[in-house]
Specification:
The chain has about 170 residues and is mainly α. The protein has one domain: Hypothetical protein af1432, CATH 1.10.3210. It contains ten helices and no strands. It is globular, with a radius of gyration of 15 Å. The mean pLDDT is about 95. The structure holds fe (ii) ion (2 copies). The site of one fe (ii) ion has 5 residues, from loops.
Length: about 170
């Protein structure tokens, strides 16, 4: 399995670097809370958009190309989560890892859109913004609410993800 440094090198020059860092911090925090494998969940967060720059004109391939690039470098369940994180690939999310990635990925996108520093955010603001954006883009809420399928209420999920991104280093 890749080390964190090796994974960082792979994503460093992609347009999704900052996003990947945020998702990886969230995923590690979620794994810790759920007693799952922190290293695997962190790596999945870091690498889930590895192919984005290559496939952005054909998002049906999103995750599929990354899976090819990562073959043999990550456990199969991690590669599956990457393939299943964007519905356009047609790969269905099944495990807790798959669903956590979908929820964290959408929450990270929401936070990026808000354009605020982590320290300016709290659970109430995130919940309000989630409602707000979901009026026109319901998939945000649908994706974030996947947290309930992994045993976390929305507020608890938001709290854990906020804790993660407020840390100096995750
Ligand atoms: Fe993605
Ligand atoms: Fe993403």
């Amino acid at each position: 399995m890749l080390s964190r440094d090796e994974a960082l090198r792979l994503v460093k020059n992609t347009s999704k670097y900052t996003h990947a860092l945020m998702v990886s911090c969230m995923m590690r925090e979620l794994a810790r809370a759920l007693n799952e494998n922190e290293r695997e969940w962190m790596l999945v967060g870091l690498l889930h958009d590895l192919d984005y720059d290559e496939v952005k004109d054909d998002m049906r391939m999103h995750g599929i190309v990354a899976a090819e690039m990562l073959k043999g470098k990550l456990p199969k369940k991690c590669i599956y989560a990457i393939k299943a994180h964007d519905y356009r690939s047609g790969v269905k999310p099944k495990s807790k890892l798959d669903k956590a990635l979908i929820a964290a990925d959408s929450l990270a996108s929401l936070i990026e859109k808000m354009g605020k520093e982590a320290r300016e955010l709290n659970v109430e603001k995130l919940r309000a913004e989630l409602e707000n954006i979901s009026a026109n883009s319901p998939w945000y809420k649908n994706n974030v609410l996947r947290c309930e399928e992994i045993g976390l209420r929305l507020d608890e999920f938001l709290r854990l993800c906020l804790t993660a991104i407020k840390k100096e280093k995750c």
